Structures are given as structure tokens and as C-alpha cells.
Amino acid sequence: MLKAFQTFMQQDGGGLLLPEMMLVLFAMGILLTDYLLEARDKYFNALMAMLGVIFSGICLWQLRLVADRGAVGFSNSLLVDPFFLFFGFIFLIATALVIILSVRYLQIEDENHGEYYALMLFATVGMMFMASGYDLVVEFVGLETMAISFYVLAGFLRRDKRSNEGAVKYLLLGAFSSAILAYGFSILYGIGAMANLSSIGQSLPPRTNLDVIAVAVEARGHTDLFVLLALATVAAGLFFKVAAVPFHQWAPDVYEGAPTPITAYISVASKTASFALLLRLLLTVFWPVRVDWEMLIAGVAIASLTVGNLAAITQTNVKRMLAYSSISHVGYVLLGIVAAASSPLGFLAGMKGVAFYLFVYAFMTIGAFAVLIVLQRQGIIGDELDDLNGLYRRSPLSALMLLIFMLSLAGIPPLAGFLGKYFILQSLIDTGHVRLALFGALYIVPALYYYFRIVAHAYLYEPGNAPLPIVSIGQRIAFAVMCFVTVAAGVYPEPFVRLATYSLFFPSGFSGH
Amino acid sequence: MEFYNTHILTVVLFTPLVGSLVLLFVPRDSVTVHRVIGNLFGFLGLIVSLPLIWRFSLDPAAPRYQFPETYDWIPSIGAHYSLGIDGISLLLVMLTTLLGAISILSSWSAIKMRTKEYYILFLLLQVGMLGVFMALDFFLFYMFWEVMLVPMYFLIGVWGSDRRLYAAIKFFLYTLVGSVIMLLGILALYFKAGGGTFDMPTLLASAAQFDTRTQVLLFWAFFFAFAIKVPMFPFHTWLPDAHTEAPTAGSVILAGVLLKMGTYGFIRFSLPLLPQDAAARHKIVTIMLVVSIIGIIYGALVCMMQKDMKKLIAYSSVSHLAFCTLGIFALTPNGLSGSVIQQINHGLSTGALFLIVGVLYERRHTRLISEYGGLSTPMPAFAAIYMIATLSSLGLPLLNGFIGEFVILRGTYEVSIKYAAWAVIGIILGAAYLLWLYQRVMFGSVTNPANEHLPDLNAREYATLVPLIILCFWIGIYPKPLFRVLERPVQQIVEQVNPGYYGAERAAAPAATPALAPAEAGGGAVGMPGMNMPSSTEATPAPESEKK
């Protein structure tokens, strides 16, 4: 038994699964011990979840030694490379931050159940497989693990109408999009199965392996109907997950209804994981046909920027406003992908920009939601613009944090968000996409307008008789971390740029590095 | 002290920042402590910048940008922390520290609520503005350019008058539009020059080698940021709102320093980016000159119609700054140095005028001209200082405004008598609206009983106004030091953008020849960009000798 386990860990690549295993272990532990806990001891669940994240992080850190050369396991269905490590850490950091922010939230809402944290860990496991999967089946299962956990989490406030409404919408539309994605995957499988695989080598890998399909796609060329169909369906499914226009309609309702920490989690982790998956697919199976998707992505990016920014202007609910703003951020990331597709030089600049953007986006977005979480109190979610009135006086710390995160989201230097936009715009200019760059740059202006509506309510309106929010120790720690990264990545971005460069995942046959 | 000697610009730049960090730790209720610390650091900022004046070398062998400091900042994109100043930036830096100290002092009793945030933001604003004038790295420059918007937004939005929310966001959005387009321009310049460095002199020198179409596009990409900031005629609509709604000190800084960032940008970036091709350049320069003329006259005419004193002075800035852009795009040494001098003058005299309105506003809480009248009876000292500021603003000889306007007009005349003639109309109108304003506010008998017993200036108000008045006289009577500081940078810029000018000068061509014709004759220089033409210092006309 022990020997079998050893063989599994050492030879079959089980060691590559350690980060995920840790998360599953602790999630199970939470489910087992939750019913033993008294109501006042429920914070123990958060502690367990936190430990799980930390252990998972340690295992992930150990993997860096094998990741440099790209370690494959489980018959080529897993790939542990810097790309996975980078995204894995984003997921873990986001999970840790959301766990810290959730403790008091759940207490106030009186929904302090262990399943909440267990589901978060399960979702993280799903995301990790989305980033490390090198096989259509693994990736699909990862995606569904994440999505199903989120459907439940979004509706976690059982007694709240909006939460239920959001969850049902999320579930129905999510299932729909997953079906479309599965359809796309099945076409890809078909393409892979029909191809002559002798070019791959002696031992035949499974036909869902991304490399195998990439070869098959390349052989078919970029005008092949099946390839185009697969591209369209896969893209549609993933655009839904990242909430890109025109598949974004679920986002505002789900964001508004879900518990605020989960809103932050969905908008950061789920989006980043879906981007990881999208990038993996675009850079492997669809890389040979990049002429097809370059225009598609550019169009979706412009649409996302336009709809996200313009619709956000009229919102009075901050969570909805941030939902639309997150749609516009998707637009920027997609623009980076467009630049990456156009030339080897653009690939380096664009992917670096995308990685940097996603990294800092996690911190500043969770930060923005954290301010709303601080404002929450019994029976009031604290997500209307008027709830922020006079925050500068009620809680100078939260107001300052809000200002920093809003400035960063809007892209004002010297904060991280500016550097993110800067790298994207630079890659666009480098690759000659001047018009796209102009779009991207000009949409900073409406974005600033609605972010500063929030700031104006916090700083320029008088508080009236709104109560003073209390910032708990955990929230202070979370604020400190997010604020540090947001400011540091803006003032001295060099280490973060190196990190982003380290994470690059090169398509096969890529030359120029 | 050793650190100060080697990093003088860094010290000047970050002294206000230290002040705001100190203020962060002062409890919110200690209003007097905020005021003392704010003023202390405002004044300290001025003191540490004073040695720049005598340490600045006029020696032609000295490097163009003095007090240089360069450190790696973001090596992966080639951005440096790189500071340095030439004569033009020296004057603007001094103007910034001086007006900063004065406006902070002027806020002592005007700002009663949220004093802690007020002084923190004001000092941050100083850092942003100083950084813009000192940065020699495009990336650094852009950071400071943008950073400065945030404190100004709050200064208008929190401590402004009735329509402050609208004015604050309008200011922010307008300037942001220009900024983001400039960001793209910077990126394009960076990319076209091969990437790897954001060093301003290097990039601007390499811009000369681009093809004409790229140069024209780059010029326009930078144009919007500066034109909105100056503001040039159709982009000026944010200015009356922002100036009117801002608190007094905010208006002083807005008019005194912020607008100069636009003209500074024109001189530092737009001029070197002008296309080498004579025809394309002529087209752009003509547009600029015509728009400037429109700005001069339009601004002056709108002033005539104002009922609100502050709005009137705000519109007068449109007119005066259009004079500065006229001088810049005349592309002659006189126009350019006159323009810089006029920028300083405008900072001093309009700064003083805004302070004067602030004095009245603090006493009566209204800015409507019709509310006042006959104030010279209760406030004689105030009347005298106001008179000097008015005369300085409208360009009376012996006061600073005259020097600037005269030299600009002379520089413009070298281009075409038509432009100069139109600009003179602006001067006449300027005298009209400023004197009319003075007449309505100060002369006659006191008609409004509320004005009968207004107290005259107090010591603090003297302390804010008198230094400005002294400087107005000094520049008006003995401007030679300023011209000497400007001589070299101006000559270098004109050589670069108007290569034919000095050649024509040496050939003793009459000044009446339109300066642009020699520019075309100098078209032979198109192929040799970044040229360092052998120049004779004697060829530079010494404008001050004209008047003696």
C-alpha cells in the first residue's frame, strides 16, 4: 500500500498534484469537523481553510524546481510549468484574502457554515486544474469543479432574494455555456482523433492532449470549417466565464446578489482561472489558426470596453458598477492577447502585460470589494453609493484604501493598475495596433468618471448619521497586503515585471525568445 | 548637507512630500498644528530651492541640463529616475516653490474644515508640479503629470464653492483625455526610437529622424495634453469652472503653475517634435498662431461680460496664456524667451489677482462684482496693491507684464506683422476689462452698506501679496537676469526648430522678412536632424537693449 503510494508520488507524477491534494484534504477536514463546532467556534473553519491554502502554497512553491523545464504527469494530461505556478499563486492569494474577509461577513449574515470554506477550496482545486491541465478532459472537469462550487457560493445567502436570483441565473447560464464549451471540446476531440498522429512520435498520447490536437488543427489550416466551429464554441464558452461582451449579462446580477466576498472571489479568481484556460487553449490548439481569432478577440475586447465602461456610468449600486468595470478590465486583457498574437515581439510584450494585469487586478479588485465588506452591517449590505457617504470621516483608513484601489482600477499612476494598462498599451503600439491602443487609452476617461463617483461619495459627501464601520484585525491585514502590492507594483514594478516574464508560456514552434 | 549638494533637485522635489507624511501622523483635530506644519514645509520647500538660483551655471560649457541625477528605476522598460533643469525649468521651478509657499500661507484662515487633508493634498500637489518641471525621463514625467491631478481634484471638490463637484470632475476628465493621448504619443515615440529608453533628450533627438507623417502624428498626440492644460482656445472650457470653484489657494496654483505645465510641454516637447519638413511645419505653426490669436481676443472679449470677479480673472488667463503660446510658436528667440517671461509674469500677477479676490471673498463671501464698489475708501492699502497687480497684468511699462508682452510681440512681428497687430488688440482689450473691473470694485462711493467697514489687509495678507508685487517691479525694471538664464535654452531650441533663423540673422537679413521664409530656405537642413549648428552667441538679439 505504502509502496504503491510511493510509486504513485514519484513515478506517476502524483507529486505534481500535491497542491491540489492539500486543498482537497483540508476541505474534507472542514466538512468532517464542521458539525462538531459550536456557533461561536465557527471561525475554526476559516482557520482550517487558511491552513489548507498555506500548505498548498508551500507545495506549489516546492514545485518550482521541476516547473522550470515543464514537468508533465498523468500521461501528458498535466503540465506543471511557470505559467501554472504563476496562476496557482494568484488563485491561492485570492482565496486567502477572501477567506480573511469572509469571517466577519458570515458572522453578521448569520450564515456561518463550514461548507462555505470547503466550497472555496474545491473551487480553488478546479481553478488549479484549469491552469495546469494539458488535456481537454482535465480542463473541462477543472472548469466544472470551479463553476459548480461558485453556483452554490453565489446563492449562499439562502434568505436573501437577490442572492437566490443571482445563483439561479448563474447556474442556468453557466450550464448553458459549459454545454457550448463541451461541444467545442468534442469537436476538437474529433479533429484530434481523425488526424494522422504518426508525426507525434512512437507512444501515442491520448487524443485529448493539447499538443496532439494542435498538430491536427495545424494540418487542417485556418479555413477549415470544423476548426472555425471549434474556435467559435470554445471562445463563446470561455467568454461567458470571463464575462466578456456579449456573454456578460449574468455578471451584474450575480455580482449584486452574491455575498460580497464571493463577488470579489468570482470577479477575480474565476475570471483569472478562465483566462488561464483560455490562454492555454489559444497558445496551443488554436495557435496555428491565430489569424482567425485575432480579429475575433479584438472585436470582443472593444465591445467589452465599450459596454463595460458605458454601462458602469449609470449604476448606483457599487457592486453592479464594479461588475461592469470588471467587464471593461476583461477588454484590456483581451487587447493584450491580441497584441500577443500578432508577432514574436508582440507576444512577449503582450503576454507580459496580460500576466501583469491579471496579477494586479486580483489585488485591487478584492481591495475594492473589501471596502464594501467593511461597510456591511446587520441587514444592510452597504453596496449602494449612498452607503459610502462621508467615509473619510467615518473610517479614514477604509476611505484611503478605497481611494488607492479606485485610482489603481482607473489606471492613474503611480499605482499598479496604471502599469497594467501601460504594458497592454505598449504592446499594442509595438505591434502597430494604434487604433486599438487609442480605444484602450480613451476608455480610461469614462472609467475614471465612474470610479470617482465612488470616491466622491466617500470624500465629498457628508456622512449624515451613518454609523461608524469597524475594521477588524483580519480586514486590516488584508488591506495591508492588497495596498502594499497595489502601491509597490506601481512605484517599483521591476520585481513584478520579472515575475510576469517568468510566467510566460510559449506556444510550440514559437521562435523569438 | 553632502546629500543636499549632490541631490539638490531630489531634495527640492520631495521636501513637500515629507511634509505630507508628517501631517499623516498628526491627529485630525489639531487644526493649528496642521497649519503650522503645512506652512513650515511650504516655506521650507521655497528655502531649499533658493540655492538653485546661484548654483545654476550660465557658463556655455556647462551641461544643458544641470544638477543631473539619474538612477535605474524600471530597467525592463528602460525607465529612469532622471532629473535635471535648464534655464526654462529653473524659472518655473522657482515660480512653483514661491507660489506654493504663498498659497499655503494664504490658506491660513480661509480653510477651516478638514485642514489635515488640505495641507497633505496641497503639499502632494507641489511634488507633482515640481516633478513635471524637473523630470528628464518621459515615464517619470508622465507619472508626475498624472499624479498631480488627484490632489487638485480634491482641492476643488472638497474646499471649492457651490458647483465644486461638477468643476472638480470636469477638470479631471478634461485633462485626463489629453494625458492618455499623450501617453500613446510617448509610447509611439519610445517604440519608433527603438525602445529601451525613456530618456527625453535622446528620444526627442531621435524624433528628428522620423518621416514627416510620423512627426505630424506625434506632434498632434502631444498637442492635446498641452492644449487642454494651457488651455488653448477650443479646449478652455474646463478652466473657468475649475478656477472659479477652487478655493483661493487652488486658483492661485491652477493659474500660476498648473497652466504653465501646458506651455512648458509645448516648449519642451512639441517644439522639438515639429516636423522637419518645412511645409508641414509651416502648416502646424500657422494653425497654432491663429488659434493663439483667437484665444487672445476671445478670452478678452469674454472677460468683458463677466459678473463674477473670479471668472473674469479666469478668462483673462485664457487670453494671457494665448499670448504665451503665440510667442512659443513664433519660433523666434524673442518670442520664446518672451513667452517664458510672460509665463512667470502671469504666475505672479494673476496669482496676486486671485489672492486679492480671495481677500475680498474672505470678508464678504461673494465674488459678484455688483456686490462691491468704492472699496478704496475703507481699504486704501488694499486698493494700492490691487492697482499694481492690475497694471502689471495689463502690461504697463516698468511692470513685468510689459516686458513679456513687448518681447513676445517683437518675436511675433518677425514672423508677420499681421499676427502682432491682432495680438495688440488683445492687449488693448486686456487693459479695458481689467481697469473696468477695478473701477467697478474700487472707485466711486460705497453703495453697499456691507462694504462700509471692511478691514484693510492684515499682516498675513501683506506677507502673501508684497513679495509678488516686489517681483513684479523687479522684472519690470531689471529683467536682464531672466533673459540671461533663458538665453541658452532658447537659442538651442530655436536652432533646432527654426534652423534658418540664425543663418538669416547672420546674413543681416532685415527682420521684416517673415521668419518662416528663411525656414524654408533652411530646408537643406532637413536631412541632418538633431543638428548642432555652429552658433554665435552674439547673434542672439539682446531684447533688453531694445528698450534702453
Order of helices and strands of chain A: HHHHEEHHHHHHHHHHHHHHHHHH
Mean pLDDT across all amino acids of chain A: 89
Q: Based on DSSP secondary structure assignment, what is the total number of beta strands of chain A?
A: 2
Strand order of the largest sheet of chain A: 1-2
Tell how many strands the DSSP assignment of chain B holds: 2
**General form of chain B:** globular
**Rg calculated over all Cα atoms of chain B:** 23 Å
Write structural notes for this entry.
- The complex is a heterodimer of chains A (513) and B (548).
- Chain A has 513 residues and is mainly alpha-helical.
- The longest helix of chain A has 34 residues.
- Chain A is 74% helix and 1% strand.
- The model of chain A has no long low-confidence stretch (mean pLDDT 89).
- Chain B is mainly alpha-helical.
- Chain B is built from 24 helices and 2 strands.
- Chain B has a two-stranded antiparallel ribbon.
- In chain B, helix 9 packs across helix 12 and helix 17 runs antiparallel to helix 19.
- The radius of gyration of chain B is 23 Å and the shape is globular.
- The two termini of chain B are 43 Å apart.
- Chains A and B meet through helix 18, helix 19, helix 20 and helix 22 of A and helix 7, helix 8 and helix 9 of B.
Short summary:
Chain A has 513 residues and is an all-alpha fold. Chain A has 22 helices and two strands.
Highlighted features:
heterodimer, A: 513 residues, mainly alpha, two-stranded antiparallel ribbon, 22 helices, 2 strands, 74% helix, B: 548 residues, two-stranded antiparallel sheet, globular
How are the SSEs ordered, and which strands pair?
The complex is a heterodimer of chains A (513) and B (548).
Chain A: H1 2-10, H2 18-34, H3 43-62, H4 64-67, E1 71-73, E2 78-80, H5 82-109, H6 114-132, H7 136-154, H8 161-194, H9 210-220, H10 225-242, H11 250-257, H12 260-283, H13 290-313, H14 318-342, H15 344-375, H16 391-394, H17 396-410, H18 416-430, H19 434-442, H20 444-459, H21 473-491, H22 494-502
Antiparallel strand pairs in A: 1-2
Helix pairs in contact in A: 2-3, 2-6, 3-5, 3-6, 5-6, 5-12, 5-15, 5-21, 6-7, 6-12, 7-8, 7-12, 8-9, 8-10, 8-11, 10-12, 11-12, 11-14, 12-14, 12-15, 13-14, 13-20, 14-15, 14-18, 15-17, 15-18, 15-21, 15-22, 17-20, 17-21, 18-19, 18-21
Chain B: H1 2-6, H2 8-24, H3 31-49, H4 51-55, E1 66-74, E2 79-85, H5 87-106, H6 115-134, H7 138-147, H8 149-159, H9 164-192, H10 200-207, H11 212-229, H12 238-245, H13 248-273, H14 278-304, H15 309-329, H16 333-364, H17 380-394, H18 400-415, H19 417-442, H20 459-477, H21 480-497, H22 500-506, H23 516-521, H24 544-547
